[in-house]
Structure formats: C-alpha cells, structure tokens
Design brief:
Layout: H1 8-60, H2 73-76, E1 77-89, E2 92-104, H3 115-197
Antiparallel strand pairs: 1-2
Helix pairs in contact: 1-3
Keywords: Ion transport, Transport
Protein name: V-type ATP synthase subunit D
Family: Belongs to the V-ATPase D subunit family.
Length: 198
C-alpha cells in the first residue's frame, strides 16, 4: 500500500475512490456473468457442430473406399471464404459465423461416377461445419481472454482496492480525530492559561 497523506483532502479523495469502486464492481460482476453465459452457449454450439460433423463422417463410411478412386475431389471443392460479422457482447467485439463460401467446380456428370454428387454434397457440409467450428473457436478464445481480464479486475477491486481504501479511510479518520481531540485539549489549556493570567 502506498503512503497516504493524513489530511481532509486525502480523506475525501479516498471516500470518492471507495464510492467509485463500489459503483464499478457490480458492473464488472454483470459483465463476468454475461461472458460466462456466452462461453457456455459457444460450448454447446461447438458440441452441436462436432456431433453434426461426426454424423456426416459416419454417413460416408459405407462408401469411403470409393474416395480412393482417381476422381480428384479436392479439385472440385474449395473453400473460398469464411464470411463473418461482428457482435458486441459485454463490450467485446466477437466474430460471428455467417456462412462459408464454397466453390464447387462444374463437372461432367457423364465422366464422373454417380457417388461424386453425394460426396460433393457431404464434403461441402463438412467444410462448412469446420469453418463454423473455426469461427466458434476464435469466438471462444476472445470470450475466455476477456473473462480472464474481467475476473482479474473483480479480484483487484474486491481483494485489493476496496480493502486498501477502507483501511486508508480508517487511518485518516483516526488521525484527524486525534488531531481534533488534541486541538480541543490545547485550546482548553490555552483558555485556562489566559484566564489564569487575567
């Protein structure tokens, strides 16, 4: 704790600080709760995406051996861009998945086998889910970082700033009270001396 001046000005300053900390602390608690709820929501979304991805993977297992044929599916399907927007949650700008722009090249239906249509459809869905999962992971990273900072601030106010300020107010109040009592005592002694002289 830094050295404090034992004056009325410092007492007012410390009381103002305490009032400000107590006003700001509930806001930090609300922000922390909002961030925790959003993190829970993102975790649920990630589980949904993982489930959907695994379901699609199971769907292609019966004909996965066909993917070994020289069809060059990777040339037919390409992720062009992941479109995102920004959402403000508890004062933090967080990315939001909008859509995945997947480029599917035209191919000759007479040259490619029949299963390629279904493979292109399923792989496109899988790429889209992976893109959404990527954005959600980025979202989660931002939220967790902000939650960590907010939690540190809450702890700073609750465990350091508010107790330090209360101690400072108490010390200054005791000192000023002692000064006032001493001044009253000195005034009485001076008054008695003046009355004794006259």
């Amino acid at each position: 704790m830094k050295k404090i001046k034992l004056t009325k000005t410092e007492l007012k300053k410390q009381k103002d600080n305490l009032k400000r900390y107590k006003r700001y602390l509930p806001i930090l608690h609300i922000k922390k709760q909002q961030l925790q709820k959003e993190i829970e929501r993102v975790m649920i979304e990630l589980k949904r995406i993982t489930y959907g991805f695994n379901k699609l993977r199971e769907e292609i297992i019966p004909w996965i051996c066909l993917l070994g044929e020289e069809v060059a599916l990777s040339d037919l399907i390409m992720l062009k861009e992941i479109e995102t927007s920004v959402e403000n949650i508890a004062g933090v700008d967080i990315p939001v998945f909008v859509t995945a722009h997947i480029d599917i090249k035209r191919y000759d239906l007479f040259i490619y086998p029949l299963w390629v249509d279904r493979a292109v459809e399923v792989i496109s869905k899988m790429i889209s889910l992976q893109a959404e999962g990527f954005v959600l992971m980025e979202r989660l990273h931002h939220l967790e970082k902000e939650l960590r900072i907010t939690s540190q601030r809450v702890n700073l106010f609750e465990k350091v700033k508010i107790p330090e300020t209360k101690v400072a107010i108490r010390r200054i109040s005791i000192f000023l009270g002692d000064q006032q009592a001493a001044a009253v005592g000195w005034a009485r002694m001076a008054k008695k001396k003046i009355q004794g002289v006259t």
